[in-house]
Amino acid sequence: MSKHRGALACALVAFLIGSAAALGETAFNGDMTFENVCTGNASESCYIVAIGTITGETPGKFADYLAEQQHEGNKVLLHSPGGSLLAGLKLGEIIRENLLETRVGIWKPDGFRGDIETGGICASACAYAFLGGTVRQVPEGNRLGFHQFFLSAPRAAEIPPDKLGEALEKAQELSSIVVRYLLEMGIDARIFVLGSGAKPDEMFFPDESQLAEFALVTPHEFGEFYLEPYKAGLVAASKRRGETRLYDTALQVTSYCRDKSPYLLVTAEMVLPTIYTPDSTLVFETSGKPVEIEIASDRLRRLGEHAYEVTLNKEAVRLFKKAAKFEFAVYLSRADGGVVSGEVELTDLDRRILDASFRFCID
């Protein structure tokens, strides 16, 4: 938090988020607490559960928790009505500084493990903290809520009339801080306008399309295929739309023909191992049952430091022409980074582009 923002913390202590009224009967007991939990044995199944109201002390407590606790995983599971706006912004900054992912949901313990249930809410100040995640998820059945910050009636009554103008000026400064925070986090700042349109006792919950439109959540899928000329032929490529994830580091998938043989090139963010040849599969989703094609070791080779080239068979090429979606996966050891994978929804244009890349061979 900048010195300017810190100076406003005292001056703007009266500006609170009216979460309880906006969320109706939903109750959250106590200040925000933190607990490390896992749904399975793998580190990517582990979360820091953050539940409760965000207070001025919450960011410091979270920073101490990260420094002192041996937590597993890199995800924060949020369920909170909000609280202090400035503290929510600071919490989001700490989440981003530590390269943590965020998700909305409710932790349901079950013996030594547990699971994540729907019905989670991350509203007001919590919503801004959530935006600090490097990867952000709001699964269906959970809600992310925004509304305006305001000067509560009891606090307003305490301000002398000649100081009310100054208080409103500070509110404008806070608005600029919030917008700057959104831009720093890579969020479409129009969400601030929509949130400000909700009354203090109301909440704006973006729907699935709005979550994507304003970059509030991180897309997992790959984008549409596009064609590029290469030497005497054509290649087709699809790139990941969002950030890579823990044990999910594929950046791009490329198709082409060389020496009259069809290939798929899977490009990863990390340097790939050279000691062994990993297992690999392709799964095609058609109108019937999904079709899985295992890639034999003699049809998979490392190409450069960041890619594996897969030699496709005739069945795979045929499926590319009619599949609605395909998934690819190269299975590395966990020490080498886990699975390099991705999934691509295919439109009719995508299928035609793929077909062209297999027919117009490069040198």
Oligomeric status of the shown chains?
single chain
User: Rg from C-alpha positions?
Assistant: 24 Å
Overall average pLDDT: 84
User: Can you count the helices?
Assistant: 11
Main sheet, how many strands, which sense, barrel?
Answer: 6 strands, antiparallel
- Strand content range: 25-35%
CA-CA gap between termini:
54 Å
Shape descriptor reads: elongated
Q: Which structural class do you get from the secondary structure elements? A: alpha+beta
**What's the CATH H-level homologous superfamily of the largest domain?**
2-enoyl-CoA Hydratase, Chain A, domain 1
What count of structural domains? 2
The CATH topology assignment of the largest domain is 2-enoyl-CoA Hydratase, Chain A, domain 1
Structure description:
Residues 1-18 have low confidence and may be disordered. The chain folds into 2 domains: 3-213, 2-enoyl-CoA Hydratase, Chain A, domain 1; 226-359, Sandwich (Immunoglobulin-like). The protein is of the alpha+beta class and 363 residues long. It has helices at residues 3-11, 19-22, 58-68, 85-97, 125-130, 153-158, 161-184, 190-196, 208-213, 314-320, 348-359, and strands at 15-16, 33-38, 46-51, 75-79, 101-104, 106-110, 113-117, 121-123, 136-137, 143-145, 150-151, 226-230, 233-239, 250-258, 261-268, 279-285, 291-295, 300-303, 307-311, 325-331, 339-345. Helix 3 packs parallel to helix 4 (85-97). A hairpin with a 7-residue loop joins strand 2 and strand 3 (46-51). It has a 6-stranded antiparallel beta sheet with strand order 12-13-14-15-19-18, covered by helices on one side. A 5-stranded mixed beta sheet has the order 2-3-4-5-9, with helices on one face. A 4-stranded antiparallel beta sheet has the order 17-16-20-21, with helices on one face.
